[in-house]
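Why run this: before we spend reagent on co-expression, it is cheaper to look at a predicted model of the complex and decide which construct boundaries make sense. The entries below are exactly what would go into the expression plan.
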Amino acid sequence: MQSSALDTTTIVTSHHSETAHRHHAHPDHRIFGIIVFLVAEAMIFMGLFIAYLTFRAVAPVWPPAGTPELELLLPGINTIILISSSFIIHNADTAIKKDDVKGMQLWFAITAAIGVLFLAGQLYEYFHLEFGLKTNLFASTFYVLTGFHGLHVFFGVVLMLGVLWRSRKPGHYSSTSHFGIEAAEIYWHFVDVIWIILFILLYLLK
Amino acid sequence: MTQLLQDEAVKTPQVPPVQEKKREWLKYFSFSTDHKVIGIQYLVTSFFFYFVGGFLATLIRTELATPEVDFVSRETYNGLFTIHATVMIFLWIVPAATGAFGNYLIPLLVGARDMAFPKLNAVAFWMIPPGGILLLSSFFVGAPGAGWTSYPPLSLVYNKPGEMIWILSLLILGTSSILGAVNFLVTILKMRAPGMTLNKMPLFCWAMLATSALILISTPVLAGALILLSFDLVVGTAFFNPTGGGNPVVYQHMFWFYSHPAVYIMVLPVFGLISEILPVHSRKPIFGYKAIAYSSFAISFLGLIVWAHHMFTSGTPPWLRMFFMINTMIIAVPTGIKVFGWLATIWGGKLRLNSAMLFAMGFLSMFVIGGISGVMLAAVPFDIHVHDTYFVVAHLHYVLFGGSVFGIYAGTYHWFPKMTGRMVNETLGRIHFALTLIGFNLAFLPMHKLGLEGMNRRIAEYDPKFTALNLVCTIGTYILAVSTFPFIFNVIWSVFKGPKASSNPWGGLTFEWQTTSPPPVENFEIDPVLEIGPYEYGTEEAVKIIKAGPFLALEAAAAQG
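The model came back. Tokens follow.
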């Protein structure tokens, strides 16, 4: 400590040969970054949920008079499908940690297919509902909330397809390097949790 | 050694280095991932928009020089104050305080080679120019005129295309801000030099940690509100439209859930800058390190639960008004802790009254005025009396100009030698400070009285009895406009012709002063290890460190000659 500054000046020369390689040393913070970003994502949904709850709370009748009842069967099935996909996608993570790229690809393909199935189910529901975007305040919030969530499901599917595309190259993902797989999985869990809250708010809460 | 280098320079042909220099200059227009380049890109871009916003302000004040509508039309006036506020908040103070200083300083202060995600950082910056140009382009289709708050139902019926452009621009700028915050948070938490525990970080890092948390929590809620507002505007839904069963007050809640914390997003980084600048130019340790560090978080937390004090007249029930009034008043406590900490820091110090220090002390005195009028406004009965009057305009300008802008000027003068490798002209800097202080107080102090007497804000014409004071405000604004000329001239002249700066012209102890001015790419040539706290001035170790020169980047220093 006493002569710290001056010591360091002499160290400079001895470190000279390492200079070129140094910048590779910095550890990977991307997963932490994704989690921090998802905090912001969660807050958009939080804002929209609380807006919805406020609309409910201040309205004299909710849903506004004349709003048809929502069917529970199809969205119920959709919910079960989406929740189960969170367990399925975790198998991909387990697989890649054992360097099993084929296994990872299989589980990702299944999860992506489930995502597409969910979106198809949601579109089917949209076309068979008896109210449109502008029917009343409930209808508007219903479509914007489910639509905004659907957009996130769509983006999750795109992420998974991206991982599958990249995994064609042997060695791109391995037990030690698989950020893309982990990121897609974390994102997918996030989208699932948001759906559970949405389902409770829009379908179950009376 | 130096002689030898000079001989070499004479022998080598002069053309290649010149070309290299030209290319070097172009990097500021490129998708650079160097945090120092990005920081300067943010700073120059936001200063550009500051001058645009300032120009709009002079137009506004010219209109208000007389009680009649004689300079611009009422519609143009609406557009002017809306765009003025939006530019100043989203394109000047937020990108300058967080983007510019956050990006330039954080890696240097924590001893890292760059931000955690350099590419993301560049993406975040390059969203600012399109967002800004988009916003200004709204003048061609009829500028939005519902104020920067864009309250529906007014925003749903007035100049719809302009309003939609305003929303798009804010969504772009908000996303940029969120991406920046992710970077700041991860860099500060994960990339500190060995030995730098959280409690040994420079205080600017604490301030940016608190700011980033606020950005991540509050900005998305504004995005949610704007998405709903754009549905109302374009598709014709009725989220916020009372005629279709919607509720405009919900918009106000969502808007202020972001926009009140936005005040802290604009001022917390500046608190951090002031905490760095005062000890260096007072040659004294900061007073109450932990109190200043943790009070940033207290401000962040409280800042999230006071938003409805903007809505005391929006039908907010009395018990809720009490809650928000008390919370708002409590914010004065952590802010007061900081102010007293700063005062104790400069108390009895060997003050160096250069431009940076003058602006820092200007910040202290002006911000306190804004803080005190803030406590006045927190009181419900008083707020109901002056709501939507010039008292509010005076208050917010004392906080955002007297606070944030003075602080950004202080930071610019303080780190100018580090950023450019040149010193600024102190005489011009002092003239700049004097003109700014005089112009600022002439422009905004009379507004307190105007507001108390009942002059409404956001109107192009007013009762003739207010003429005299309004004229004073207008003259103050012109002085403020003139005050930027010595600054602009000083900066441009100094970048090219200023005397060369040493690596540590102020005798600072944080890492950035231990490397060259400007620092090399990747900042340091040996990995910095924390050996002395950031503010331990007056110790023998401090003297040694300051005398050692740029020991973290000796090669770069040698190459510079």
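The two ends of chain B are 9 Å apart (CA to CA). DSSP finds 20 helices and no strands in chain B. Bring this page to Monday's planning discussion.
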